[in-house]
Amino acid sequence: MNSAIMTIGCLLVMLTTSSFSRAEGWRGIVPLHSTCEDAKRLLGITKCETGSYDFKDERAFIWFSEKPCADGWNVPPGTVTSIEVFPKKKLQLATLNIDERKLKKEVGQSAADPVRYIDENEGLVITVYPNEEVKSIAYIPAAKDNYLRYPNSLTDQSTTGGDPHSIIKFDEYGNLALNEEHKRLDDFAFMLQNEPNTQGFIIAYAGRRARAGEAQARAERARNYLVNTRNIESARIVMVDGGYREELTVELFVGAKGGAAPIPSPTVCPSEVQIIKGGSVRNSNCRSTRPRYK
Amino acid sequence: VWNPAAAAAGVDFFRDGHSGYLPAGVSYHSHSGVPFSGPGWSPQWQEYVNYIYSESWAPDTYTYAGDVKNLTVNVTAHSTGGFMPDGTASLADAPQNLALTPEQIAGLRKDLKDMLANSKCGDFAKALLKQLGNSYSDNALTLFDKVAGMKNGFYGLASAPPFGLGGGTIGGGNASIGIRLSAGDAPIFHNATARSLFHELVHVASDSARGFGHPEMAQAAYAVAVAQGYKNVPKPPEPGSKDYDYQSSLYFESRLFDACKLR
Fold this sequence. Notes:
Largest interface: A-B, 69 and 69 residues
Number of helices of chain B: 8
Helix content of chain A: 10-25%
Distance between the termini of chain B: 36 Å
Radius of gyration of chain B: 19 Å
Strand order of the largest sheet of chain B: 4-5-7-6
Strand content of chain A: 25-35%
Largest sheet of chain A: 8 strands, mixed
Radius of gyration of chain A: 23 Å
Distance between the termini of chain A: 41 Å
Shape of chain B: globular
Strand order of the largest sheet of chain A: 1-2-3-4-8-7-6-5
Oligomer: heterodimer
Strand content of chain B: 5-15%
Structural class of chain A: alpha+beta
Order of helices and strands of chain A: EHHEEHEEEEEEHEEHEEEEE
């Protein structure tokens, strides 16, 4: 199991100090600067795997890097990239002696949602409940470390944000025969017809071995069927080139008309893809992982 | 269909100072100053107004008065920011939240039960609820029954989006879930409803008054997916990600889909 369940008797130093210093990180762990060995030594963990780690007074979710093109940071594997710490005991924002007026504030979709106070320069995110009780403290890369960013990584997807409860993943399929694909799209069309305030999103991913333009062609094939055979207004269908996955994949989402789009989740870096062209196979470094919406 | 009796119950609900979402039968519609339809409309409005009605947020920023078909809410200020402009909304025709019949609630339970009967899905759901740490139960059907027994338990959403809304918690004694019923009779529609339902059940599953948010749900889903041997599981969004909550929700949806998809 990825989650290391541990009990460490250390005092909760960070949460009981009167102020935050990002330079010191959490228990000495600083995102993008602390290695796997640092994490083992300072936290007493035995493996450097992304996951949830349980301590006496808090639970921490720790992200470790695996490869730059996937994680978005030019750092060695095993480097800590972020930590989110959830205190087990009640902790009020006021006790942290932080001037939240100086921090960027993000409110949730409803007033009952937690509020996030963000210090991008220091790399700190404090999430509090409406009653100002601290939900979590996250340590993220500081602004000064932006030079370590890996451009166009898999995490670097466009997002417009939106109401999370106004979009659902409806279906997903792979390299289906045309008649099988049509059956899946018939259900999708029925859903769209019965929910007139929605629009459909088709995210197509090419496989690890792919023909040039394969994802785009699959998305267009699906949209053409929905529009021409199932009479769905073309304006209600949005196609997204999602990049690459292990196998050719099409995801179907239903979301609010004019609302936020789903975010592609490619799993294969463009540099790892073999493009099949004219019977030959070549590596591809030419495509951005940023999605293209049509 | 406008149901005056249900609407009256809704108004009384708020007069009680109860917290939660708008109860079945209650709706609000465009009135001068509040663009509840057309440009600028978004489903989040509904949730926002619900909280204002419910007195669970900024209680000194509104007043309400009126009878069943003409509840007027005057929003004058915000203490916590947000995006709702000052204005007035009134209750009128066509409720947006529907009372569910016992048969419909039983149907929702069946949707959930059928989805969990797929052992891959059932194992994932159980492990996920366990992973979250302080869920009232790791049995989603137990959570369903608990919510169903609460005062404002389940209600129907008259249109989508949203597809589901969860508020309160089981531990807080005020869990409430709005759900859009299946668009069709084919199993895939019931499966989609069951996934939305499970999503909302996780939000309210806590045995304390603190609900589970999307980031926690995403992190738990990752841990469970890896532990259960799913392949090529991407890492959950990091706290510095843009639209962290939205990304986390979509991430959770994808892991749930992988475990509970019909085909």
